[in-house]
Amino acid sequence: MAFLSATLATVLGTLAALALTQRFRGKLLFSGMIYAPLVMPEVITGLSLLLLFVAVEIERGFWTIVLAHTTLTLCFVAVVVHARLVTFDKSLQEAAMDLGCPPLRTFLTITLPLIWPAVASGWMLAFALSLDDLVIASFVTGPGATTLPLRIYSEVRLGVKPEINAVCTIMIAVVALGLIVASLLTKRSASRSLGARV
After folding, report:
1. What pTM did the predictor assign?
2. What is d(CA 43, CA 57) in angstroms, rounded to the nearest whole number?
3. In b/e form, how buried is each residue of 74-101, taking b as 16+ CB within 10 angstroms?
4. pLDDT tens, position by position, for the chain (198 residues)?
5. CA distance 156 to 150
6. Residue 115: which of 149, 87, 74 has the closest Cα?
């Protein structure tokens, strides 16, 4: 669930960040809708999504959790990618389009490689938030689906078992491994860019 919702949130958040860099009517309203989940309590978000799913008669389960987590994490991705796009040199895009490159190809060959670290950071942030979420998942989950935090919470209420300790240790080890790999990749790319300048 976390992988799928983080991927959807990254795609939609990147598109939203690209839209926020353009001028159009209703930009203030659009940015308010994008940034609203950042300041809204998770309980209110979960209850609102529950009422929405009940009103449109969607059966709660796997897909409602994915949609809820996508809604929650999309704004975080948009903020991270938008921060990179604000400092982005747009003359590179303009030069590519002046030379006859269509907009989609310009985005794929020029813009995306330059903003890729922000997109990857947004995906990792969305994945971590989705994997960690307990409040919203407790509102929108159904009888056929449960998340790991919900399972851990329900088991801990009855007493801490060795299985819970093992799962938590594995999660900490995976996060630590991810941090080490990200640190090594960052250090490697920094040394490459320093070598290219020399």
Report:
1. 0.81
2. 21
3. bbbbbbbbbebbeebeeeebeebeeeeb
4. 888 999 999 999 999 998 888 888 888 888 888 888 888 888 888 888 889 888 998 888 888 888 999 998 999 999 999 988 888 777 877 788 878 888 888 888 888 888 888 888 889 889 888 888 888 888 888 777 778 788 877 777 777 778 878 888 888 898 888 788 878 877 877 777 666 555
5. 10
6. 87
Contact 109, 101 (CB under 8 A): yes
Report the C-alpha gap between 162 and 143 in whole angstroms.
Answer: 25
| Distance separating alpha carbons of residues 82 and 119, to the nearest angstrom | 10
CATH code of domain 2-145: 1.10.3720.10
Contact 182, 127 (CB under 8 A): no
**What 3 state SS string does 87-136 have?**
CCCCHHHHHHHHCCCCHHHHHHHHHHHHHHHHHHHHHHHHHHHHHHCCHH
Both structure tokens of 73: 């994490």
- What radius of gyration do the chain's Cα atoms show? 20
